[in-house]
Specification:
TIM Barrel, binds flavin mononucleotide, NADP, flavin adenine dinucleotide binding, Aldolase_TIM, FMN, RNA-binding
Length: 375
């Protein structure tokens, strides 16, 4: 690994460039491919692919607020190539630049076909999923199951590489289990095939999400390849990101679960890593972003599906905002009425603001009692 390749088109220390909200038709590929241009001095922070979570609107918001890049939810390559509606929605990238589509599958031909189609539909980067631990995925020999047979994994990577002209990347775990920590080998094979970057989640498949991600173990990958390495797992803020980069020797971090209900977190970490001041949005701005996300999902999926799809986001926004009592929260995640969900979401952000304003307005005698009075 070298430290002079970065997943950012921004110059070191520069203000993030204004992001286009839609890809200009005919934009030359080499401009879009600047995502992977070698730059020095900047460590990036990417939004991780989270199936059922990192929908189009979450990615748009995260990217607009400074995430180095975002990755779509995994898209089953065969479903996408066959044109299913769910796969199409997962691969949506309108207004997200660069638009990284992650494909999952085990058959090189379907993966190649899915990649070709994704590129034709505007993907700027194709990412291959070799990390998903879910039984439904590994049972079909996809996701992290591919790490059990690196020769097959390599054939699949080669097929995807050959199918497209945009950059290709791969996301993996440390290995299938403790006895086969073969991520460095897989990363070397990807590099030889012309892959532009690899992401490593610092757990084995058999660990699923238990324990702590082993950032130091990612170092073996960083030392095995010269292409950019992105380290992933349990990064929840700037201190974690710095420690993760130090221990892993990676070029960038990828943040998943910690960004749910806080899509601005990834940009804040990216800014912090670049040495810029971290300007996280205030409560009012967060409320607006959450509402934008929610309304976007209703528009994308329709009212019935949208309100269901939005539930995990609504719960996470409300939990971080802290403004709902348990019965309101329960209502927020069960209501099928989009207007009621929107009202409760607003309330989640308003209530703490109103409460703190009330406290501030109280006469001093009624304000929080000093500890000495109770003693
Ligand atoms: C709900 C959920 C869905 C996920 N979906 C995907 C996926 O579609 N593709 C993928 O490569 N990884 C997926 N992952 C793994 C994450 O991208 C990431 O590797 C993992 O959550 C560790 O990072 P974190 O600790 O920052 O969340 C998923 C994880 C979770 C919790």
């Amino acid at each position: 690994m070298t430290t002079d390749h970065y997943l950012s088109a921004e110059a070191p220390g520069a203000e993030p460039a204004a992001l286009p909200t839609a890809r200009a038709p005919g934009t030359p590929l080499h401009v879009q491919g600047a995502l992977l241009a070698p730059l020095s001095g900047v460590h990036g922070a990417l939004l991780a692919p989270l199936s059922g979570v990192t929908d189009l609107h979450m990615r748009r918001i995260a990217r607009r607020l400074g995430a180095t890049a975002t990755v779509s939810e995994m898209v089953a390559a065969e479903d996408f190539a066959r044109g299913t509606e769910e796969a199409r929605l997962r691969a949506e990238g309108e207004g997200v630049l660069p638009h990284v589509v992650q494909l999952a599958g085990c058959d090189p031909r379907w993966m190649a076909e899915g990649a070709r189609l994704a590129e034709a539909n505007g993907a700027d980067v194709i990412d291959v999923n070799m990390g998903c631990p879910a039984k439904a995925v590994t049972g079909g020999q996809a996701g992290s199951a591919l790490m059990r047979d690196l020769d097959h994994a390599e054939r699949l990577l080669a097929a995807v590489r050959a199918a497209v002209s945009v950059p290709v990347t791969v996301k993996m775990r440390l290995g299938w289990d403790d006895a086969t920590r073969n991520a460095p080998d897989l990363a070397r094979r990807a590099e030889r095939l012309g892959y532009a970057a690899v992401t490593v989640h610092g757990r084995t498949r058999q660990q699923f999400y238990t324990g702590r991600a082993d950032w130091a173990a990612i170092r073996a990958v960083s030392e095995a390849v010269a292409i950019p390495v992105v380290a992933n797992g349990d990064v929840a803020g700037l201190d974690d990101a710095r420690a993760c980069l130090r221990e892993s020797g990676a070029d960038a971090v990828m943040i998943g679960r910690a960004a749910v209900g806080r899509p601005w977190l990834v940009g804040a970490v990216a800014a912090g890593l670049a040495g810029a001041a971290i300007a996280e949005p205030d409560a009012a701005a967060r409320a607006e972003l959450a509402a934008e996300h929610y309304e976007g999902l209703i528009a994308l999926y329709g009212a019935r599906m949208g309100v269901r799809h939005a539930r995990k986001h609504l719960a996470a926004y409300a939990d971080h905002a802290g403004g709902l009592d348990p019965s309101e929260r329960a209502r927020l995640v069960t209501t099928t009425d989009p207007a009621e969900a929107a009202r409760l979401l607003r309330r989640a952000f308003e209530a703490p603001v109103a409460r703190s304003a009330q406290q501030a307005a109280r006469p001093e005698s009624q304000a929080a009692r000093p500890a000495t009075r109770a003693a």
